[in-house]
Design brief:
Strand content: 35-45%
Number of helices: 2
Order of helices and strands: EEEHEEEEEEH
Distance between the termini: 31 Å
Largest sheet: 5 strands, antiparallel
Low-confidence stretches: none
Number of domains: 1
Helix content: under 10%
Structural class: mainly beta
């Protein structure tokens, strides 16, 4: 991030992707996802890889199903007090695309509100993000799967300090 105003909030976009291991037997794929949780935690990691046990600087989350906002509406509703926003619905990706499972895949975009005050007194902010998804198979059977924890690093750069400007000779 270049020359940010510490009073502003920015949106960091992410994607939750689920491979469907169960082959589709109908023309209309059945979404196996019931609900989801996304947890975001910015920690004071002191120049090393962040750990969940580090002191928390900022945290936010999403709990539930897809939200009622479209992508263009997210910026207008972006406020750390409102938590993480998701796209309106999951998108099915057919099994013919690389990286999908036998039943295709499901993707959902999400946006994390990042208040720039996290850079107060630091140039680098390290965060951890993880998700859990509750699945159903069309019967009463439900189960939960957990993602790995992803490390996210954001650096605050300043033109006057980090970018050399050379004059004409």
């Amino acid at each position: 991030m270049w020359d940010v105003n510490l009073d502003h909030t920015y949106a960091l976009e992410g994607l939750v992707y689920v491979k469907d291991a169960k082959p589709q037997t109908t023309d209309s794929p059945l979404k196996p996802i019931d609900s989801m949780t996304i947890d975001w935690c910015t920690v004071d990691s002191c120049g090393r890889a962040p750990r969940i046990t580090d002191d928390t600087i900022y945290s936010t989350s999403f709990r539930g199903r897809a939200s009622l906002l479209t992508r263009p509406q997210v910026v207008g509703h972006l406020d750390p007090a409102n938590g993480i926003h998701t796209d309106i619905s999951w998108t099915w990706i057919a099994p013919c695309y690389p990286g999908t499972g036998p039943g295709g895949g499901w993707a959902l975009r999400f946006w994390v509100p990042i208040p720039m005050w996290i850079f107060n007194g630091r140039d680098v902010a390290r965060s951890l993000v993880r998700a859990s998804i509750v699945f159903h198979d069309g019967t009463d059977c439900m189960w939960t799967a957990y993602s790995n924890t992803a490390n996210v690093t954001i650096e605050h750069l300043r033109r006057g300090r980090d970018m050399r400007v050379s004059g004409r000779r």
